[in-house]
Amino acid sequence: MRVAIALALGGLLLAGAAPAQDAQNGRKVAGMCRTCHGLDGYAKIPIAPHIGGEPQSYLVEQLTAFKSGTRQHEMMTVVASGLSEQQILDVSAWYASHTATAELAVGANPEDAPQDCVACHGTAGISELDTAPNLAAETNIYIDTQLKAFRLGKRKNEIMSGVAADLTDAEIRAYADWYAASKLTITAPVEAN
Ligand code: HEC
Ligand code: HEC
């Protein structure tokens, strides 16, 4: 009896589990992203963020938000609405399979890092949480735009909407400049070489 229940539960768990993701298939999907984000996720245009080495769950969540319309952007809304759920899982697995590391700008003092941000986004901008993105070496334009979008309510998140609500333009600029100055290195997974 116990065995039967365990088997039945096992079956349910399997049926309910997320579909498997395939990073190699994701690499093919990334062909659609490379002009803006690079094949390794190091952005090629200043308004696009670096996405290589971001947590997979963060990438899936953002692509799903663009697809469903809860996050909007003229380029990404079009891109994401053309992706299937499987392609979202796969392309996120591809970019997440890279490793992102960051160093502070030459001469930067770690004590000057924004104390309201480091617990989640790190001193040099490598995320400390699976749900938060890296900020290292994003352009100050990108960081500025996102913080103002959270402040305005155009982009919503339980944590960041609250954080951004109280920021002044000068603080936004200072935080954006701090993280934009970091040096980011994205390393491809070994099997991709
Ligand atoms: C034409 C350029 C372009 C293409 C092609 C493109 N993107 Fe983007 N992507 C952008 C821009 C610009 C943003 C910033 C959107 C914003 O300001 O909210 C962005 C944002 C994102 C984000 C949010 C990252 C973050 O840190 O919040 C993800 C994830 C993403 N893109 C994934 C992809 C994937 C995967 C593809 C390919 C299937 C792709 N993009 C194709 C320009 C592009
Ligand atoms: C308690 C954790 C936490 C703190 C503190 C925090 N953040 Fe965030 N941040 C997040 C999470 C989670 C997200 C992802 C939001 C989403 O899913 O849309 C995020 C997203 C962002 C983004 C969007 C980046 C992108 O790639 O699109 C920026 C910019 C940002 N945070 C800047 C800051 C700054 C500047 C501070 C300090 C003033 C700060 N955050 C403090 C958790 C945090």
**Count of discrete structural domains:** 1
Taken as a percent bin, the fraction of beta residues is 5-15%
Do you know the CATH topology?
Answer: Cytochrome Bc1 Complex, Chain D, domain 2
Structure summary, number of beta strands? 2
Gyration radius, to the nearest Å? 19 Å
Question: Explain this structure to me?
Answer:
The protein has helices at residues 2-16, 23-29, 34-37, 56-68, 74-81, 85-96, 118-121, 140-152, 158-165, 169-180, and strands at 99-103, 183-187. By secondary structure, the protein is mainly α. Helix 8 runs antiparallel to helix 10. Residues 3-16 have low confidence and may be disordered.
List keywords for this structure.
193 residues; Cytochrome Bc1 Complex, Chain D, domain 2; 10 helices; 2 strands; binds heme C
